[in-house]
Design a protein that fits this description.
Blueprint lengths: L1 H4 L4 E3 L11 H6 L5 E5 L9 E5 L1 H8 L26 H17 L2 H24 L3 E6 L2 E6 L4 H4 L8
Parallel strand pairs: 1-2
Antiparallel strand pairs: 2-3, 4-5
Protein name: Microcystin synthetase
Organism: Microcystis aeruginosa V-08
Keywords: Pyridoxal phosphate
Length: 164
């Protein structure tokens, strides 16, 4: 739909990237974004984020396919882009190690973690139900959260209610 309408589709995969499936939420929902943002897990605990996307969008950041020291040159005008940890060698080494580990162990690693999280949610929900706590665990893959329900939900989730 976005492609037909000429709208850029951007996915924030900082949390879901490589977690719900090897291809993140894009793979899970069978959607291909124009630009994707990754972070957190990709750095193996080090500060890193990645902006990935189609050449139409990213060539203005890095000039397209070219490198220093040969006859190639940027194919487009460059935009200044920088940051405190841009291209930090330690973070890039960690990122490479994480990507290699994911490539060697996907989709098994995601399936296993998703199954364990589902089991955790099921067992915690059963426990809460047995002792009468009006909270349930909801999960999407390995992501989970606690969700109050019933008479107490108005006190535990006021930000989601039209009170203000």
């Amino acid at each position: 739909i976005t492609h037909k309408k000429g709208i850029t589709l951007i996915f924030d995969e900082i949390i879901t990237g490589f977690r719900i499936a090897p291809g993140g939420a894009q793979e899970w929902f069978n959607v291909e974004a124009d630009i994707v943002i990754y972070g957190k897990a990709i750095g193996g605990g080090l500060p890193i984020s990645m902006i990935c996307g189609k050449a139409d969008f990213l060539d203005t950041v890095d000039g397209g396919f070219w490198q220093y020291g040969d006859d190639s040159h940027p194919q487009t005008e460059l935009t200044a882009f920088g940051g405190t940890f841009c291209r930090h060698p330690l973070a890039l080494a960690a990122c490479r190690a994480v990507l290699l580990h994911l490539r060697e162990n996907s989709p098994t690693i995601q399936e296993k973690v998703n199954q364990l999280t589902h089991r955790l949610a099921t067992e915690v929900n059963q426990f809460f139900q047995e002792i009468g706590i009006p909270i349930r665990v909801v999960n999407f893959g390995s992501l989970f959260r606690f969700e109050p329900f019933g008479a107490y939900s108005i006190f535990l989730q006021p930000i989601e209610l039209p009170l203000f």
